[in-house]
Amino acid sequence: MTEHYDVLVVGAGPAGLAAAQAAASHGARVGLLDAQARHGGQVWRHDVLHGTPQPARKAFNLLARTRGHVEWLPRHQVIAADHRTLLVETPRVSVQLSFGSMVLATGARELLLPFPGWTLPGVTGAGGIQALAKQGWPVHGKRVVVAGSGPLLLAAAATLRRHGAHVLGIYEQAPTAAVAAFAMQLWRWPVRAAQAAVLRARLAGIPYRCGSVVRMAHGRDALCGVDVDDPRGPLRIPCDLLAIGYGLVPNVELATMLGCALDHTRIHPCVQVDDLLRTSTANVYAAGETCGIAGLAAARIEGSMAGHAAAGSTAAATALLPSRHRARRFAGLLALHFALDARARALAGADTVICRCEDVTLAALDGFTDARAARLATRCGMGACQGRICGTALAELGRFPRSGIRPPLFPARLSTLAATDVPNLPTDDSRGTYA
Ligand SMILES: Cc1cc2nc3c(=O)[nH]c(=O)nc-3n(C[C@H](O)[C@H](O)[C@H](O)COP(=O)(O)OP(=O)(O)OC[C@H]3O[C@@H](n4cnc5c(N)ncnc54)[C@H](O)[C@@H]3O)c2cc1C
């Protein structure tokens, strides 16, 4: 049986929660789904020690006041879609959901750049270890180096310290002048400035070094130290964990599958939307990080706008446009001041593993000029992450753009794939071309 919603919202982070609330305020029947067991997305992730952040609780409680207009569908992962139906897997069953209109609020993931030693146990994404710590992974007493680029490093370091980790230092690749220029602009976004001040206070005593890049991770069976290229000279830092991420990349896979046009003006595309957050596919809207990395404030405003518009209230959506423009200007500031240094793109050597799922080295990819040919010859990008990590890194390294997004979007059960009318699954003649 197919369940139908007037408005179906994919993703229950700040953008999705706001979209569901806005759509329900016009009386629409709303489905709000997320692959995660709890609402909140990345920034408001539930913490086993410290609970659900207050803004997430507040946003969720507002949904309860819609008198049943919003149905919350946790642990619902979209694995395939066409323009009217989503195929969704839950831990037990697969279901099809249809919609009058849909809001894509699928967020972002971290950009991980390969370097020698990055596959050692103990090396994780900065946001990745933040999520693990919140979910109960023990970091208490561990010596952690935090590195990469962007404000997420501060948030990750603060979470790690809160969970008892010994944060040895934060190594930001952007030069001091760029970070200082960024900080000087923050007064224009008082909420951001306040967040930064709170984080800095929580991180008191932890060195914050700019213009520094982790060149190598050492260890036999697990991480035992890192080499850092620092403006004051090379450093070798013994540590138990390295939390490293080079910024965020929009999750556009579902939008691509739905035929939504992407904006390719940056290395990592985002979903193209108009002033009402309509994508190029009829009745499909997008909001938050999937439309380009701009942070929490933009996600909340865009979620509200998309929810209003998806429920047919263009006036309510348009009223929020000036706030959106303002919040989006912050994205430009981030991109400008935390632009990646050429050193970060030159860390991988010929024998550095690029595709962790299929053990493919950089040298094995020499000579290939497109992702499909490389995939067919080397299996690069054919593993569990389906190129989300290696394909994104290769685009950043200037090899070739990621391509070939096909269903299922995530590894799925055979019983789900065997369902008769799965939307968008490949026909027999193309079935052999992917893993
Ligand atoms: C790892 C990580 C950690 C971050 N930590 C912070 C932080 O501490 N502070 C901060 O200010 N910002 C943080 N950010 C930035 C963050 O992206 C934004 O601030 C904010 O969360 C964006 O909100 P959003 O609603 O657009 O997306 P998100 O919050 O990312 O929400 C997207 C949701 O969509 C769901 N989803 C995606 N695809 C599917 C699918 N196919 N099926 C079902 N569900 C799906 C995801 O499970 C997720 O819950 C982090 C980002 C990342 C990637």
UniProtKB/TrEMBL annotation:
<keyword id="KW-0560">Oxidoreductase</keyword>
<dbReference type="InterPro" id="IPR023753">
    <property type="entry name" value="FAD/NAD-binding_dom"/>
</dbReference>
<feature type="domain" description="FAD/NAD(P)-binding">
    <location>
        <begin position="5"/>
        <end position="292"/>
    </location>
</feature>
<dbReference type="InterPro" id="IPR051691">
    <property type="entry name" value="Metab_Enz_Cyan_OpOx_G3PDH"/>
</dbReference>
<dbReference type="Pfam" id="PF07992">
    <property type="entry name" value="Pyr_redox_2"/>
</dbReference>
<dbReference type="InterPro" id="IPR041854">
    <property type="entry name" value="BFD-like_2Fe2S-bd_dom_sf"/>
</dbReference>
<dbReference type="InterPro" id="IPR036188">
    <property type="entry name" value="FAD/NAD-bd_sf"/>
</dbReference>
<dbReference type="InterPro" id="IPR017224">
    <property type="entry name" value="Opine_Oxase_asu/HCN_bsu"/>
</dbReference>
<protein>
    <submittedName>
        <fullName>FAD-dependent oxidoreductase</fullName>
    </submittedName>
</protein>
